[in-house]
Design a protein that fits this description.
By secondary structure, the protein is of the alpha+beta class. The chain contains 17 helices and 22 strands. Helix 1 packs across helix 5, helix 14 packs parallel to helix 17 (557-569) and helix 16 packs antiparallel against helix 17. The strands form 5 sheets. The chain has a 5-stranded parallel beta sheet, sandwiched between helices. It has a 5-stranded antiparallel beta sheet with strand order 7-6-10-9-8. A 5-stranded antiparallel beta sheet has the order 12-11-15-14-13, sandwiched between helices. The protein has 4 domains: 6-153, Response regulator (Rossmann fold), CATH 3.40.50; 157-253, 2-Layer Sandwich (Beta-Lactamase); 273-378, PAS domain (Beta-Lactamase), CATH 3.30.450.20; 387-588, Heat Shock Protein 90 (2-Layer Sandwich), CATH 3.30.565.10.
Length: 595
């Protein structure tokens, strides 16, 4: 048999609580003597003496006492008058009339006035009796207070609490219990519990719930009640068997909870339906861990829910994550502010991806931050495009500076020599012609570079070897170019011809027309190499910058054109060394019909 839920309540007794006594007597020596005797007779007592009965009520209103012991015959106000004043003020602690004048009339008045004990001062022997009466009265008062407080707690509890006897009849229930079923206490007390359930649920109680309650002493679970209006009420029940065969029933209306769960389920389905990753964290817990992620997050990152719940979001960061973005996020969270940033994150498999991350604090009605919610969008393609544009703009900035310098220099030489020729020095015309040739070369190369915008306007399958063998496309006809093997690549013919032209011209200009050149296929691309002097390893990163050239008077724009044509097709070009020590250009990311 299970014990009552109230059995574990701590009972108050003189063994666990200091007894506080207020002693009222207009004779100060009597107060001092009574205090000594009470402190000797009671183990744990605090006695406060008062000689002015007129000030007692105000004092008691500000201090707590367990018992008041008062003389009867005092100037201005006797003990019974003091009791009446205290009761009017709401003071209900035990009151002992301890008087030196004892007669039947006073005793009768004391009983009528409601004193808890009446005792005459008959010398030192009376103090053990007084101490015993105080102890008994205080213990009784504490017990009554505890029961009263317990009852008030049950009455005001939000959970419904009822007592049902062995016949199934309600003997008591608090207002919250009746409210669950949209009824009053008067409608339920004295009636049978079965009136609150339909036929199917009553059968369940009779066949399952009540037998288990009788066998084990308790039962807890869910049931469905019926309100006065006929509405079905999902409820949580806790039943506890009583010794007389009845039981205590605690009921909680789950309507709001189930509505909330249904609403939450709808919201979760909605969040899972979006491709945006949604993360919710709990800053009240150590390290602000993740408490919720949607399907969009798991699809984006490759992590399952069980992989991430309880962890801080920083596990998505990696070696190349920009620490300034990390600091921006950390500071916003510390300051409980919203933040939007782009950050490089990593999937479970280690693949980097660009994440557009928006984080906002979630505050309760009191304005306190209870959660952070983060929305994540995969923007890798957009970010790569942005980076490419930024690189293009940076290149154009450098290109403009080099172009300005390289155009102005021969132009200045040209103007200067023309002026000298006008003055009669015709030998200067040769120098002017060379400066003009230099300008012509620069403008020709510039034209190639600036035409990159329409390089990939007409993509078609092209035989790589055929393009490299189109000698009429070159200003310089190489005497030694071998196509080791070929493949069909998807490219713009005009742009690819210009790329091959620049590769061959670069070899001829730097190594001579007789230099051996080779073209061949690579998995996902192709290569071009020569037997010339090669490009020093420490200079290879600078080759595609505007103005770079190892040849005296070279513009460097031929290499720029090669890079721009490759980028326009989405290819990657790298520089290495051929087996003979010459330059080797490898183009990868090239689409082909042969692979």
């Amino acid at each position: 048999m299970a014990s009552s839920p109230l059995s574990d309540i701590i009972s108050f007794s003189p063994d666990t609580h200091t007894v506080s006594v207020l002693l009222v007597d207009d004779d100060e020596p009597t107060v001092e003597m009574s205090t000594r005797f009470l402190e000797r007779e009671l183990d744990d007592v605090t006695v406060t003496g008062f000689t002015d009965p007129g000030a007692v009520c105000e004092h008691v209103s500000k201090h707590d006492y367990d018992c008041i012991v008062s003389d009867y015959d005092m100037p201005g106000q006797n003990g019974l008058d003091l009791l009446a004043s205290l009761r009017e003020d709401g003071c209900q602690v035990p009151f002992v009339l301890f008087t030196g004048k004892g007669n039947e009339e006073i005793a009768s008045q004391a009983i009528s006035a409601g004193v808890d004990e009446y005792l005459q001062k008959d010398g030192p022997d009376v103090y053990p009796v007084l101490a015993n009466k105080i102890e008994t009265l205080v213990e009784k008062h504490w017990a009554e207070s505890q029961v009263r407080q317990g009852f008030l707690a049950i009455e005001s509890a939000q959970e419904g609490i009822g007592i049902i006897d062995a016949d199934g009849t309600y003997r008591y229930l608090n207002p919250a219990y009746a409210d669950v079923y949209e009824r009053t206490r008067e409608e339920l007390v004295g009636g049978h519990w079965s009136k609150l359930y339909d036929t199917e649920e009553r059968a369940r109680f009779e066949s399952e719930i009540l037998p288990e309650l009788e066998a084990t002493g308790s039962w807890r679970g869910r049931a469905t009640g019926v309100t006065k209006s006929g509405r079905r009420v999902p409820e949580r029940l806790v039943l506890t068997q009583l010794a007389d065969g009845g039981h205590v029933c605690v009921v909680e209306d789950l309507t709001a909870e189930e509505d909330l769960l249904e609403d939450l389920a709808i919201r979760n389905r909605a969040l899972d339906a979006t491709s945006i990753g949604v993360v919710i964290t709990d800053p009240s817990r150590e390290d602000n861990p993740i408490v919720y992620v949607n399907d969009g997050f798991t699809n984006m990152t490759g992590y399952e829910r069980e992989d991430v719940l309880g962890r801080n979001c920083r596990f998505l960061q990696g070696a190349e994550t920009d620490q300034s973005s990390v600091r921006e996020l950390r500071e916003a969270i510390e300051n409980e502010e919203s933040v939007t940033t782009e950050i490089l994150n990593y999937t479970k498999s280690g693949e980097p991806f660009w994440n557009l991350l928006e984080i906002s604090p979630v505050r309760n009605d009191a304005g306190e931050t209870v959660n952070f919610v983060g929305f994540q969008r995969q923007i890798t393609k957009r970010k790569e495009h942005t980076i490419a544009i930024e690189e293009q703009l940076a290149w154009l900035h450098d290109f403009g500076r080099v172009l300005s310098h390289d155009l102005k220099t021969p132009l200045t030489v040209l103007k200067g020599n023309i002026e000298l020729a006008r003055d009669g020095d015709e030998t200067r015309l040769d120098d002017a012609r060379r400066a003009a040739d230099r300008l012509d070369a620069l403008i020709s190369d510039l034209s190639n570079v600036m035409q990159q915008g329409d390089l990939v306007s007409d993509i078609e399958p092209l035989d790589l070897g055929t393009v490299f063998r189109s000698w009429d496309a070159f200003e310089t006809e190489p005497s030694s170019l071998t196509v080791v093997d070929s493949k069909h690549v998807l490219a713009d013919e005009r742009a690819l011809v210009r790329l091959t032209d620049n590769l061959v011209k670069n070899t001829v200009e730097h190594a001579g027309a007789d230099t051996e050149m080779r073209v061949g296929a690579l998995p996902g691309g192709f290569y071009y190499e020569d037997d010339g002097p090669g490009i020093p390893e420490d200079e290879r990163d600078d080759v595609f910058k505007p103005g770079y050239s190892t040849k005296s008077g070279g513009t460097g724009f031929g290499m720029v054109s090669i890079k721009q044509i490759a980028m326009a097709h989405g290819w990657t070009v790298t520089i290495g060394e051929s087996q003979s020590g010459g330059a080797r250009f490898e183009f990868t990311g090239v689409e082909s019909l042969d692979e």
